[in-house]
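INTERNAL AUDIT FORM
Audit reference: QA-55
Scope: verify that the stored structure record matches its stored sequence.
Auditor: D.O.
Record contents follow.
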Amino acid sequence: MIYTDGTRLRAKAGSSGAVKGQLYFKDPIRITGKSGGWDRVVLKAKSRGGLPKGTTGWVAHSHIIPPYCGGL
């Protein structure tokens, strides 16, 4: 689950990755991979920001609420 409003979903891990859209508090996600301080996620439902269910991308780990983030 996303912890903060306006969290950027990026095309690749790192702050230089292109922004695909924004995620908001309580948007449901599943973690599918990790790279450094970044988690690869898939949306489990349409996001409050309008991204469709199934969208994938990278989110800084600090924006994810454990233990509700799914697991590998």
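Auditor finding: record pair retrieved intact. The longest strand covers residues 29-35.
Action required: none
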